[in-house]
Amino acid sequence: MSNSQTIEKQLRDILDDDHILINEPLNNHTYTKLGGEADFFVTPSSYEAVQQVVQLANREDVPFTLLGNGSNLIVKDGGIRGIVLSLKALTDIKVDGNEMIVQSGARIIDASYRALDESLTGLEFACGIPGTVGGALFMNAGAYGGEIKDVLKEAVVVDRDGQLLTLPADAFDLQYRHSNIPEKGYIVLEALFALKPGQYDDVKAVMDDLTHKRESKQPLEYPSCGSVFKRPPGYFAGKLIQDSGLQGKGVGGAEVSTKHAGFIVNKNNATATDYIRSIEMVQQSVKEQFGVDLEREVRIIGEDPTS
Q1: How far apart are CA 101 and CA 241, in angstroms?
Q2: Which residues, 6 or more positions from 120, have their beta carbon under 8 angstroms from its beta carbon?
Q3: Same domain membership, residue 106 and residue 72
Q4: What per-residue confidence (pLDDT) applies to 130?
Q5: Could you give the residue numbers annotated as active site?
Q6: Could you tell me the pTM of the whole model?
Q7: Any alpha helices (H) in the chain, and if so which ranges?
Q8: Domain boundary pick from 86, 117, 144
Q9: Where, per UniProt, does this protein localize (predicted)?
Q10: Which domain-ending residue is among 66, 86, 106?
């Protein structure tokens, strides 16, 4: 029996067949609609199953990658070897007084609207962020003056050894678009948000206003990974890119949005390579014209295509 068959057999001992996909195209799971195949794409529906998959990867020395909903991510055209674990089956949202317990596969947008339903304030900023709750913690997602660290009380994670831990917010070193979750190798399973009582109409008014701003300014009509670059100190990335004359330019099917220069869109069947080269083109041009280094906010993972 080959190693691949051994891994598949052990995965089937942990998960039902409908939670395991073999050679799954990852362009089905990314907002850019880009990415090659995953050897194994698994979607466990319990915390115990997540632990067992991690322990299997450790035991068999199999490469292991966590994938959220692919909203702030570029997967290279060569795909990802080993096991890709998605938590999209873990989507429960519970409210207890002013606290909200949200599983990591739930969209942060859905959490913000559940808070609205309960007349709770604190998550309005997240009403337009497309990522999952786990992904939002991973990068301390934020928008319009709010960020995850403002509301996170604690989180349940699985560590590299497959152990279940409950950790306070300050254990994650949450800073601007940063956490220590990737360095620690944590897999976030759920988050506890501490919110405050609000007035339904007031919370809704803020969310309606933020939604209008997002829809009017962002190129939502094309696949993209959202805002590509972090805000450089003293500047706005989109303004620098716009002033560099890059809107409408790109490589292959990828293009710097003419609607919002901070976005690169998949306009015409782009490859991940097109997208990455477009990012590099923007970084080089802004550096040459303004002397500013643009740091990526989007993550790039996976393998280059084989020729």
Answers
A1: 39
A2: 95, 98, 100, 195, 196, 197, 198, 203
A3: no
A4: 83
A5: 177, 227, 297
A6: 0.90
A7: 3-14, 47-60, 108-117, 133-138, 181-184, 200-217, 237-243, 272-290
A8: 86
A9: Cytoplasm
A10: 86
Domain of residue 295: give its range.
219-301
Instruction: Characterize the bridge pairing of strands 146-147 and 142-143.
Output: antiparallel
Structural domain includes residue 209: no
- For residues 181 and 269, give the distance between their C-alpha atoms in angstroms, rounded to a whole number: 33
Neighbours of 92 (CB within 10 A): 10
**How many helices (H) does the chain have, and how many strands (E)?**
8, 18
Judge if 197 and 278 occupy the same domain. no
| Beta bridge partners of residue 264, listed in sequence order | 256
Residues 98 and 185 in one domain: yes
Distance, C-alpha 213 to centroid of its chain: 21
Which tens digits make up the pLDDT trace of 97-145? Answer: 999 999 999 999 999 999 999 999 999 999 988 889 999 999 999 988 8
> How many structural domains does the chain have?
3
CATH, residue 157: 3.30.465.10
pLDDT digits (tens, 9 = 90+) for 22-55: 999 999 999 899 999 999 999 999 999 999 999 9
